Amino acid sequence: MRLQQKIALVTGAARGIGEAIARLFAKEGAIVILTDINDDLGQSLASGIGDTCEYLHLDVSKPSQWQHIQEHVITKYGRLDILVNNAGITGFLETEGPHDPENLDFASWKKVNATNTDGVVLGCQCAIKMMKHAPAASIVNISSRSGIVGIPGAAAYAASKAAVRNHTKTVALYCAQQGYAIRCNSIHPGAILTPMWDAMLGKGEARKAAIAAVAADVPLGVMGSPEDVAFAALYLASDEANYVTGIELNIDGGILAGSAAVPSQKS
Ligand code: NDP
Fold first, then answer.
1. Could you confirm whether 157 is annotated as catalytic?
2. Most distant CA atoms of the chain, gap in Å
3. Strand order in 137-142's β-sheet?
4. Which atom of ligand 1 lies nearest, measured to the CA of 16?
5. Which atom of ligand 1 is nearest to the CA of 12?
């Protein structure tokens, strides 16, 4: 019960990594507020987890919706201990694109950044207000390995995740400077098998081959699971990470540890 008595809010919690985080946090004793724009899925997940959680609609790109959440949380629980800013989109399905730096569609760029960058900035702002009198609070921002390296076909996604990476450190230092007991850290997943990948992987045999091709580029040889990321979020959210703020934690099977572009050793 590593999160007993904690009040935790997870964005984009209806499926994928957010779902795994919500499930694990509830198992570890937290009261979990699941939020998403996919209300049917979110609601049924929350009902399945049980009465230690609830589901609320939240489009993270909308300041007025964050305001509503803030009022609800303060009225119902009096405080927030943990926020996981998880909601994010690649833009491949949600926007027209293209997303390469030469031909990018500006409306698509703005939509990806509205969700990924604005969503995290608004979440942090709202959380600081709800957490600043808490004894030990934690913000966990889900960035990406794409926030650390460039992605030629996904400029908006990569730039937005880099913004999340950097803003995390600003929030961490600001809170420390103000004397607030709020830690803020980022997680950088690599290739994690979630519905986000569905459009890129195809179906049936093609999907199997596509997963194998992605896995071949991962030093550990497999795609990650949502639970791999959830355990990292659990650590950063818990009081075990009491002295940890402003860090970036890579959960990527070794992708960021080095480059494949080195000659192999000849014996
Ligand atoms: P999924 O697409 O599986 O789940 C994301 C959830 O967020 C969906 O339920 C989606 O709803 C919801 N969502 C989309 N837009 C908004 C919004 N504006 N406000 C609130 N909720 C929204 O994604 P993953 O679980 O794979 O990804 C979770 C996070 O992890 C993202 O930030 C992603 O960028 C990051 N990440 C994922 C990696 C991976 O390999 N999977 C790698 C690196 C980072 P709907 O279904 O209606 O779109």
1. yes
2. 68
3. 53-57, 31-36, 7-10, 82-85, 137-142, 182-189, 248-251
4. 25
5. 7
Cα-to-chain-centroid distance, residue 6: 19
Find the 14 Cα to ligand 1 centroid distance in Å. Answer: 9
The β-bridge relationship of strands 7-10 and 53-57 is unpaired
pTM for the full model?
0.97
Torsion over CA: 78, 135, 122, 99 (sign): negative
Residue 186's φ and ψ, nearest 5 degrees, are: -115, 150
Q: Take residue 168 and report the two structure tokens written for it.
A: 């995390």
Say which amino acid occupies 8.
A
Q: CA 201, CA 198: separation in Å to the nearest integer? A: 5
Backbone φ/ψ region at 38: left (φ over 0), alpha (ψ -120 to 50), beta: beta
How many angstroms is it from 267 CA to the middle of ligand 1?
A: 45
Angle, helix 16-27 to helix 226-237, in steps of 10 degrees: 50
Alpha-carbon gap, residue 90 to 196, rounded angstroms: 8
Peptide linkage before 98 cis (omega within 30 of 0): yes
Distance 12 CA to ligand 1 centre (A): 6
pLDDT tens, residue order, the chain (267 aa): 999 999 999 999 999 999 999 999 999 999 999 999 999 999 999 999 999 999 999 999 999 999 999 999 999 999 999 999 999 999 999 999 999 999 999 999 999 999 999 999 999 999 999 999 999 999 999 999 999 999 999 999 999 999 999 999 999 999 999 999 999 999 999 999 999 999 899 999 999 999 999 999 999 999 999 999 999 999 999 999 999 999 999 999 999 999 766 666 665
Instruction: Give the ligand 1 atom nearest the CA of 226.
Output: 25
